[in-house]
Amino acid sequence: MTERRNVKSVVATAADDHERSRDFLGPIQIDQLLGAAKKGRHGTRDHLLILMMFRHGLRVSETIALRREHVDLDQSRLWVPRLKRGLSVEQPVAGDELRAIRRWLVKRDDGLPWLFVSERKQPMTRQAVNYILASAGKRAGLGHVHPHMLRHSCGFALANKGHDLRLIQDYLGHRDPRHTAHYTRTAAARFEGLW
């Protein structure tokens, strides 16, 4: 019986620690990260990769699984196939992102189906994405930046814009609204006008 309580308290503490920690980047930090990514060896690709991960709340596995056919340049749309039994949806692509996609595709001299490829013409790996983000984060002076921070950053940015829980839930592909509630409950915009 005592062991069970200890396990529960450890789990509760871990959950509380997660809720209290700031594991996302704000708008200024995102801009710094994107600027730093442009200055890397593969700046066009790395900038686009980070921009898309942030704008669409992509997990690293979803990012490396993106294919050229998922991007509709004429309609400015991206088909986002979600993993973890998430809701796959079509999302709009903003003008700056569309231009970044076109810049990247013009540089490509291969017919490979993946949207993001390595310099060896292979699909990107999780490790490569981790390295790209860590390097850009370091160059931007942001410390350690990891891929899931961009997904959280997307959720918090949408919540701070005042979007409701259901819309953010669908946008991020969450099946369970409890995963989305974290963004809307802690968003600064929610507390505007209290004083």
Automatic annotation (TrEMBL):
Belongs to the 'phage' integrase family. It comes from Paracoccus mangrovi. It comes from the Bacteria. Residues 20-195 form the Tyr recombinase domain. Keywords: DNA integration, DNA recombination, Fimbrium biogenesis, Transcription, Transcription regulation. It holds the Pfam family Phage_integrase. This is Tyrosine-type recombinase/integrase. InterPro entries: DNA_brk_join_enz, Integrase-like_cat_sf, Integrase_catalytic, Tyrosine_recombinase_XerCD.
